[in-house]
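[Meeting: bench + compute handoff]

Bench side (C.D.) handed over the final construct sequence. Compute side (W.E.) agreed to return the predicted structure before the next meeting so the bench team could plan truncations. Sequence as handed over:
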Amino acid sequence: MSLVCIISVAGCKKEFINRNPLDTYASENFWRDENDVKIGIAGVYATLNRGEGFGPFLVWWDGLSDDGFVWSAPWQNTGQGQVEATSTGPIQDVYYNNYRSIGVCNYFLANIGKANLGDAKTNSYSAEVRFLRAYYYLQLTEIYGGVIITEKPAVLEDIQTNLPRSSKADVVKFMLQDLDFAIANLPNTAYTDRAVKGSAQALKARVLLYNERWAEAAAAANEVITSTKFSLFNDFRGMFIKPQQRSAANTEVMFSIRFQAPNLTHQYDYRIGWPSFATVQALGLLVESYEATDGLPITSSPLYNPARPYDKRDPRLRYNVYTPGHKPWLYAPDSAFTPMVEVRTGFMIRKGIDETRSPYGYNTISDQDIVLLRYADVLLMYAEAQNEATGPDASVYAAVNQVRARPGVNMPPLPAGLSKDQMRIRVRQERRSELAFEGLRFFDLKRWKIAKDVLSNITNPGGAKRKFDDKHYVWPIPQAEINILGSGSQNPGY
């Protein structure tokens, strides 16, 4: 199905609206009052959870990076260079699922005025939705480059025969307009369950960072830092599981996808934490990248003992990865983790795994929230952008060292006197150590323009080589779309 159908034909409604309460949007009796608006916006938030590559399965992106291995066939094939306009799986799904979500956002924005809530409430609700729309467009631009900008509602529109593709710069401009509106109209409070001003500021910093607008990105991140609404949580692992992640003391999470059993659940623990499934697994390349506790790489640290390779390492290794000998092992608390046939890399992902639900199986119900934006990322975005804009000044050191000094991590500060290039390397490593398995590493490699060099040197378990050519920095627009837009709209090389 083409994008034209998704965003414009009433008959396609069931294709992109897969969860109540949005089924009632087309009713003439809807949009009567604020209660209807609340129902509607709940449906908009539901679009954050759309399958592999989204919601609980953002970690699939890490399976395409040098941090992980994904054995799910369509994603594994993509990582091995099978990327064509006619490819199924993520090549199509990422494109259409983001546009399905954008279409729902647009429908809400086109209709909220009917509820006559007044400017303040209308703008506040609209700001939440425009924040979400920017989130979806960011993923589209990072994967496909320039894409179609549409403000057309998801349903009740005339069929359109042509929707022009915009440049990436124009889409970025559109995203920033949405985010500036969100910043101006969202509540200036700590995050609880819906987007707030800080959420939009953090996403704006990410948009600017990804587009190498260094000074602007640093300024956007610094607005979050100086707001004092957010801080690092003192329980790194607890930030990704309940009940700690919803603790009043946790002011690090800035936006997440909220789940609550028994009605809103997912299968993260089963899909990632069950050894017989473990769709995405950690790679030894990530494990080796973690420093020793003295802050030195394991290749130069006197603390590193090859006979006990996981001792005296950055604690975040243990928080993020099950390594051989890890005790207690969630399936047998009195024993240690031993790699098995199903765990093809020898390492399993621990981040976000709720060990209280073990042993896992197909019917395991998980409901931990999926963190999309957090304060540690803002600090590291600031450090990267400020270093690129002006060099490694004191504020860059302060931002990185704050992340390293988190209680329970307690890594030593960065050495003084780093050059701009040296600081760049350290910030990139810090992002890898801190943000592993949060769906960011693949995008980092691409925007740093090192994906080809890094990913082309990886051999998957089983012997298949990864492949990343120059053209893979952007994926092809799905062929169904090109059939409408014309071959001249396709990305180079496809």
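W.E. noted at the follow-up: The longest helix spans residues 119-144. C.D. will use this when planning the next construct.
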